[in-house]
Inverse folding.
């Protein structure tokens, strides 16, 4: 691999790692944040969702920004913004400041992953591109392993504030490597940004999430709740209408005419909503219920990630041979069974018999699901539009997680005690079962040519 290509790959990995790492460390820190700053469950929800609102709304815009201003410029702005907001979060004096800073961090995060992938796509060609994406995927998956554990160690040994400073060093290294790279930026003539769509999407998601989180405080009958919910729904409907009429839409609705694409994305909604709900509830409850230290709470779900790393590539290969439908059906149903096993958790807590079996079954189901799901969605779209198809699926996954976390108060009944934990486990299992049933009903094996392509 030429030196310039190697530098590009390292830069893309580090920039994406920053965003993925933040998404995995924050859940472990939530009980400590709530204990120091106050605000209870609502603060914990907002710390997660303030980031996801701006990230989910703007992740589709990032591709357009890269075309207009250049990939390296957008990546550099995202890195600097992420560093500044991380420092601001670490210094937050109260919940409101922290939540606003998290929303700003989501804007910066939205610029990182799409720009990183765009940099790889524009630098590598042919088989080298596939290998580069494989290395990028393997390296960024490492954030799922080290994030919860590293976050737990920082919370226990230092403070939750240091959790948000973890990213500063890799960001500084990435910015230096961009200078070393010295690559000339590329802009696409005639490219535009759909700012109207971005505003409508952000207002839509923000209104819906505000109503879901704050209904526990004001009640559904309050104008502050039903009013913002109405505004959110109307704004999001306006966003979808805008996508039909925009000259360069953020989310081309024509993609959803393809069967496996729309069916796969419906499955994504159920599966990733369940993943976000389960990931948050388990790590927070283990600290607030049985009283595990943050480090052990972070380690509790490690079997899930390890099984995914060990088995997902094999599942992807088998799905390529047999088709994705059986895997996208069996995987979520296995995960539903794993979530249901959490109902064995009792006041007399025992991780090895009550939590570990759930993590093993859940992890096996996740490994069976993710690669076939991704392959089914992207394989349904012609290669020329694979970039936007991937961005749309990524945004849908983020928004599904956003709404699941926003609805946490409704799901658990206001407090994450043992009863609320069990209610969350039931909802998680139901969402996953629905995802499996959708895949069984509508996903089909892609048609392939009888002639295999010649090996490279």
């Amino acid at each position: 691999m030429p030196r310039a290509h190697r530098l590009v790959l390292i830069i893309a990995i580090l920039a994406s790692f920053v965003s993925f790492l933040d998404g995995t460390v924050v859940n472990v820190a939530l009980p400590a944040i709530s204990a120091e700053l106050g605000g209870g469950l609502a603060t914990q929800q907002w710390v997660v969702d303030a980031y996801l609102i701006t990230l989910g709304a703007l992740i589709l815009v990032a591709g357009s920004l890269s075309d207009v201003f250049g990939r390296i410029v957008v990546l550099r702005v995202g890195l600097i913004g992420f560093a500044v907001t991380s420092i601001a979060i670490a210094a937050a004096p109260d919940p409101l400041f922290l939540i606003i800073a998290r929303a700003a961090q989501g804007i910066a995060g939205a610029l990182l992953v799409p720009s990183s992938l765009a940099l790889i796509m524009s630098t590598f060609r042919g088989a080298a591109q596939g290998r580069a994406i494989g290395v990028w995927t393997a390296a960024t998956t490492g954030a799922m392993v080290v994030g919860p554990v590293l976050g737990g160690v920082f919370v226990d040994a230092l403070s939750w504030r240091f959790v948000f400073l973890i990213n500063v060093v890799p960001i500084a290294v990435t910015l230096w490597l961009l200078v070393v790279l010295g690559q000339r930026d590329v802009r696409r003539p005639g490219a535009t940004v759909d700012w109207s769509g971005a505003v409508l999407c952000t207002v839509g998601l923000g209104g819906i999430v505000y109503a879901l989180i704050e209904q526990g405080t004001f009640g559904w009958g309050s104008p502050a709740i039903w009013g913002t919910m109405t505004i959110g729904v109307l704004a999001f409907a306006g966003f979808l209408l805008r996508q039909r009429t925009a000259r360069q839409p953020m989310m081309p609705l024509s993609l959803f005419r393809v069967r496996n694409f729309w069916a796969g994305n419906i499955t994504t909604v159920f599966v990733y909503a369940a993943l976000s709900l389960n990931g948050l509830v388990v790590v927070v409850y283990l600290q607030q219920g049985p009283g595990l230290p943050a480090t052990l709470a972070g380690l509790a779900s490690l079997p899930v990630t390890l099984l995914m790393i060990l088995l997902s590539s094999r599942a992807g290969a088998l799905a390529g041979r047999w088709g994705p439908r059986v895997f996208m059906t069996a995987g979520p149903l296995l995960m539903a069974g794993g979530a249901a096993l959490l109902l064995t958790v009792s006041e007399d807590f025992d991780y090895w018999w009550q939590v570990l079996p759930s993590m093993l079954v859940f992890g096996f189901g996740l490994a069976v699901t993710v690669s076939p799901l991704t392959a089914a969605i992207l394989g349904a779209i012609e290669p020329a539009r694979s970039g936007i198809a991937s961005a749309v699926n990524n945004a849908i996954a983020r928004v599904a997680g956003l709404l699941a976390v926003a609805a946490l108060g409704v799901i658990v009944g206001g407090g994450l005690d043992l009863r609320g934990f069990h209610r969350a486990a039931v909802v998680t299992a139901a969402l996953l079962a629905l995802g499996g049933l959708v895949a069984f009903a509508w996903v089909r094996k892609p048609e392939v040519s009888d002639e295999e392509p010649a090996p490279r």
